């Protein structure tokens, strides 16, 4: 599990790739969905105003969370499977479930989530956003880069394996590489966000919709969806 504090919003992932007492991670061969304890945790997160993030969870667990949660949830950093069939990318069923309940998808810039990896073009990435907007609507999408800058490969190994595994897990990479994958040339750091703005405009998004995708939707989502429930 991961817990984050940002912009005054507390949010937690129910899994980090592996099975937990709450739900199944995306790397498990069998996804058993939310557990009884997981439903209790979701209910309590709803009560205190914590955001539920299913970015590293299996499909059934994610769909369960969408259905069971009384508040909108998020997949904060992943892409659609129609773009690239990575383990952590999301099916159309998840995209539609998020949209129907007011949830959010954040598009990942992590190369292993991109078609052609670090060679993914800006046009391909922005075209993927446009197709997702056709499925989910432009108000339910944003950017969730999953960007790590300046971290050693030992951090990547720890993220993939934790402290419990006796075998090396390469995540969505392979034994050919234990290093960070190369970022696309058009997104090397947060200084390159303007490239995405230009790419979205070039693909046909209006300035208003670009503002939504580049942060406006997240801000509205955080401001209107969370905080303790009132009796």
Question: What is the secondary structure topology, with strand pairs?
Answer:
Layout: E1 2-6, E2 9-13, H1 36-48, E3 51-53, H2 59-68, E4 74-75, H3 92-100, E5 104-107, H4 122-136, E6 141-143, H5 153-161, H6 193-203, H7 207-225
Parallel strand pairs: 2-3, 4-5, 5-6
Antiparallel strand pairs: 1-2
Helix pairs in contact: 2-3, 4-6, 6-7
Give the H and E element order: EEHEHEHEHEHHH
- What is the tally of helical segments? 7
CATH class: Alpha Beta
Rg estimate, integer Å: 17 Å
Helix content bin: 25-40%
| CATH fold topology | TIM Barrel
- Main sheet? 3 strands, mixed
Strand order in space, largest sheet: 1-2-3
Beta-strand portion reads 5-15%
pLDDT under 50 segments (min length 5)? 1-5
What's the overall geometry? globular
CATH-level-4 superfamily name: Metal-dependent hydrolases
Distance from first to last alpha carbon: 29 Å
Tally the beta strands.
6
